[in-house]
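User: I'll paste a sequence; please echo it back and then give the predicted structure.

Assistant: Echoing your sequence first, then the prediction.
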Amino acid sequence: MVSMKRVVALDIGEKHIGVAFNRGGSIAFPYGVLEGSKDLEPLLRIVQELRAEEVVLGWPLRTDGSPGERAKQIQTLKESIEKVFSGRVILWDERFSTKEVEKRLIEAGVRRKKRKGTIDQLAATLILQTYLDREGR
C-alpha cells in the first residue's frame, strides 16, 4: 500500500464541526464533533494532535456549483488556517454529504436523537473518504 499524507477533514456547520482523519492511509475515520464554529484554536489543536499534513474543508457550494454566503465564510476560514498551518488546506465540494449521511443512517434504522449526535462527524468522514479516493488514483 502506498503511504498517503495524514489528513484531517472538517465539516463546518452553523453550530457543530464534524471532524474526520486518516492514519496516513486510504481510509477515513470519524474523530468527533466540536461545539461552535467560530474559534480557530480547537481546530488547530486537533490538526496538531493528529499530526495532519493537510486539512480538507467541506465547501458548501450551491447545487449549481456557485459559492453562496456559507461557502464564502469557509473560504475565509481557509485563509485563516493557512496563516498558521504549514500544510495544504483544500476546499472540497461537500454538496449533499450531510443529506447522504442522514439518508444512510435512516436506512440503517438509526433513531433521530442518535443521528443528531453523529451526523456531523460522519459527514466529515464522507468528505474525507471521497477526497482520499480521488487522491489515491
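Residues 7-135 form a domain with the Nucleotidyltransferase; domain 5 fold (CATH 3.30.420.140). The beta strands are 7-12, 16-21, 29-35, 54-59, 88-93.
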